[in-house]
Design the sequence.
């Protein structure tokens, strides 16, 4: 499976974004994106993204204490500006679906990961760039596995533990898509 893992760069008080560190260290093709709506759009329009078999996007959630797979992306942007000062408040896609479900994980994945304390599924991807890129990726690639994983700061869950959990998640996803009959 040609899976691209993305992370985000610095923004606000987050100078060393854990999502970028985890994406770089995961052993898969990765891209680190500037925390901007324009950069997210450029990446999703790229040949590289279009040719990938799937996308797993990572972003930091500074108030969370564990890894949280986002079950949905909402057709809404909040008023928080990106690193370029852009804050395109309102619908991401005017008239588009209100909610889109992640396509990279299924109920069995989530149940297994939750049972083994790897993750705690989330119903709220927020209203900033994490939700935005997730929504736009799900709309752009409806036939590909696409999902967004929020990660906590390393102060809340140590880097080594997050790296180990991410590897288990990635291997599980790859196994399911590479060997669908298992």
Sequence:
């Amino acid at each position: 499976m040609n899976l691209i893992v993305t992370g985000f760069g610095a923004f606000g008080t987050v100078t060393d974004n854990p999502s970028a560190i985890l994406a770089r260290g995961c052993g898969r093709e990765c891209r680190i994106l500037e925390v901007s709506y324009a950069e997210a759009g450029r990446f999703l329009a790229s040949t590289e993204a279009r040719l990938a078999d799937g996308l797993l996007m990572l972003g930091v959630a500074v108030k969370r204490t564990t890894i949280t797979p986002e079950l949905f992306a909402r057709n809404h942007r909040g008023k928080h500006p990106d690193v370029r000062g852009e804050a395109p408040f309102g619908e991401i896609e005017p008239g588009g679906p209100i909610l889109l479900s992640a396509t990279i994980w299924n109920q069995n994945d989530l149940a297994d990961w939750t049972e083994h304390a790897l993750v705690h599924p989330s119903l709220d991807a927020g209203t900033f760039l994490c939700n935005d890129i997730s929504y736009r990726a799900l709309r752009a690639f409806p036939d590909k596995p696409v999902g967004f994983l929020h990660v906590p700061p390393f102060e809340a869950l140590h880097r080594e533990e997050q790296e180990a959990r991410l590897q288990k998640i990635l291997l599980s996803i790859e196994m399911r898509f590479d060997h669908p009959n298992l």
The chain has a mean pLDDT of 97.
